[in-house]
Design brief:
Radius of gyration: 40 Å
Order of helices and strands: HHHHHEHEEHEE
Number of helices: 7
Strand order of the largest sheet: 1-2-3-5-4
Strand content: 5-15%
Shape: rod-shaped
Largest sheet: 5 strands, mixed
Length: 327
């Protein structure tokens, strides 16, 4: 403001430099608010009038000088009011953005927590149903089979005609026992302990080959140890869902599950020789199984992709960039 006043004095009172005084007024309003802007406005108008008077400006009537000063002060006041209002509105918008961003972050965190809790509840329910099948229905069927065998032995000893039918009944009951054990084993595989991912995948591959009469193999060139069971459970469920989708929907006859270290992370692929994924039509939502697999991958920070080849076959890939640290 002093430099502008000096320039105003040197240029003479015939040349008005009043607009240049708006620069310190705006700077003061931006830095200190409307109060500081008003104070600098008074000083700027005073400096402007003093520079003109020192340069030789004289008014025939003192009221003219007072009028000019009042007009200049009013213009500065309007500038201060407009600028302070703009700054206040800008700060209000920033505050609303911060509040809404914080609320959105809290909502996202709560949603992720609920999603993890739902998955954990699902895993616990799997285990509960698996134990109920194994310890409840399985034992009940076993007892029924023993009673039927005893009855069949009695019928065979009497050479009864119903002995052959009883043997068929016993065979059906034993088949039901095997199916119950297979279902219970698949559900109880959710209890993956630390460093048990490879064993669980190998057991799942063997059970899949036996249950669905397909060739399902696990390829793991080196031992893989996951310190925590959370990532291992999600990876196992991704492989399980991908293999079952390939058999049920892709009509695959061969499924290969591969697990290997890749840098500091881990890679899992499930490839098959089936007919591939069906092309979704307009407005057709993605399958629930695919969405669950992608969501499981996102929960452990892994990338997820599905590629269907033109000649048939699908590759489901999941890559964990870094192995989880010990909990």
């Amino acid at each position: 403001m002093a430099l502008i006043g000096l320039a105003d004095y040197l240029s003479g009172f015939q040349v008005s430099l009043l607009p240049f005084y708006f620069v310190p007024v705006c700077l003061a309003t931006t830095a200190g608010g409307w109060a500081l802007g008003a104070a600098v406005s008074f000083l700027s108008v005073g400096s402007w009038m003093l520079a003109d008077f020192a340069a030789g400006a004289r008014y025939p009537n003192p009221a003219v000088g007072a009028w000019n000063g009042a007009i200049a002060l009013a213009v500065c006041g309007v500038v201060v009011w407009l600028l302070s209002s703009l700054i206040r509105a800008h700060r209000d918008v920033e505050e609303r953005v911060r509040e809404r961003t914080a609320a959105l972050q809290e909502e996202i965190a709560e949603r992720e927590r609920l999603e993890r809790e739902v998955l954990e509840i699902g895993e616990r329910e799997r285990c509960t149903i698996g134990r109920d099948l194994h310890d409840g229905l399985g034992q009940h069927l076993t007892g029924t089979a023993l009673i039927a065998q005893a009855l069949g032995t009695g019928l065979s000893a009497r050479h009864a005609a119903e002995a052959g039918e009883m043997r068929k009944v016993i065979s059906l009951i034993e088949a039901g026992i095997e199916q119950t054990r297979s279902l219970a084993k698949g559900l109880l595989l959710a209890e993956i302990e630390a460093e048990g991912l490879v064993d669980s995948l190998a057991e799942f591959a063997a059970a899949t080959s036996q249950s669905f009469q397909v060739e399902c193999r696990l390829h793991c060139p080196e031992p893989v140890a996951l310190r925590g069971s959370g990532a291992a459970t999600h990876l196992f469920r991704i492989a399980q869902e991908a293999a079952r989708n390939a058999i049920r929907h892709g009509r695959a006859r061969r499924v290969d599950i591969a697990l290997w270290r890749q840098g500091e992370g881990l890679s899992l692929t499930v490839s098959d020789d089936g007919c591939g994924l069906p092309r979704p039509g307009p407005g057709t939502p993605q399958g629930l199984g695919l969405r669950i697999m992608a969501h499981r991958a996102s929960l452990i920070g892994a990338s997820f992709s599905i590629v269907s080849h033109a000649g048939g076959g699908t590759v489901v890939a999941c890559r964990l960039p870094r192995l989880p640290s010990p909990s």
